[in-house]
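Long-time lurker, finally posting.

We've been working with HipA-like C-terminal domain-containing protein (Flavihumibacter stibioxidans) and I want a structural starting point before designing mutants. I don't trust myself to interpret raw outputs, so I'm hoping someone here can both generate the structure tokens and explain anything notable. Sequence follows.
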Amino acid sequence: MLPILDRCPGNLEPGHETYSPRCKAEMFGSRTKKVSHILPFPPPNNDSEYGRLFQENRQRISISGVQEKYSMGLVKNQLELVDRKGQYILKPIPGDLINRAFIPANEHVTMQIAKQVFSIETAANAMIFFNDGTPAYLTKRFDYKPDGTKYQVEDFATLLGKTEELEGANFKYNASYEDIGRLIKKYIPAAAVAMEKFFRLVVFNYLFSNGDAHLKNFSAIESPDGDYILAPAYDLMCTRLHINESELGLQEGLYKGALGSPSYNKFGIYTYDNFIEFGERLAIPPKRSSKIIEQMLQKIPNVEPLVQRSFLSEELKVQYMGHLREKEKRFALKI
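Top reply, 14 upvotes:
Generated this for you. Predicted structure of HipA-like C-terminal domain-containing protein:
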């Protein structure tokens, strides 16, 4: 059944039956472009003439990760599967996870919260629906230049020299967030600015229970000036709605020794003191780290309206906010 909308499936602005003008400008380059939120074909698991096209498309797309991703292009005003130069990535519902039907909605609302509430630079994104009403997540690639060529992008697994061949299937989890910080200092000229952006993103991932924030979910991207900057955030979601995994994605945590710190030993969880120490290891003064955390906590009341307008089920909306409030309380714990 096709969805009947009362809010933009992109920025969740109320009063729209499809993408709002502001969303169209961000996603498709024009406020007046008539791009439908309904795709003209069924999802990839349907037995149809599109099954072969999906399979061929998936083999060609140059995006890492285990979730199915498909390359999309905007042909006139219609989103279509494309073989090359696709400027959008389509992520259908994946398999083998609880509440899997709401994974696109989870990623979508978390990305919107990051941008709208916390002013974190993110990849442009929206919900979209197959012609049978099945939801999917659509994101715009940020690695294309205006002339159609690509910016160089390197994820932090690559920058750390970690590969599956060298370290096994879990290679992208074998590090700490401090390790990423060291690489930011090494490769990004405006390191002080990038460090604060990175710190805010790690705090955000913790607050929103993103237990899959691994090395390949952070990248450095070539800037128009030819040097490197921190890439926009992507793959943000509350993984606790789908799997009971670690507090943070990297096995060594915030920094080496964090799991044996006085604060962690006392409370058994990451708390305020751990993040202040993490900030110091990123060369962020404690007063500045504290201010960033406080500013983020003050914005939490602005989260719920977006969650309520999201495409999560009513039950998962309650769970989503519950996980956030539980994490918020942890920042009040201090030695």
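Before you design anything, note these points.
The chain has two domains: 21-140, 153-330.
DSSP finds twelve helices and eight strands in the chain.
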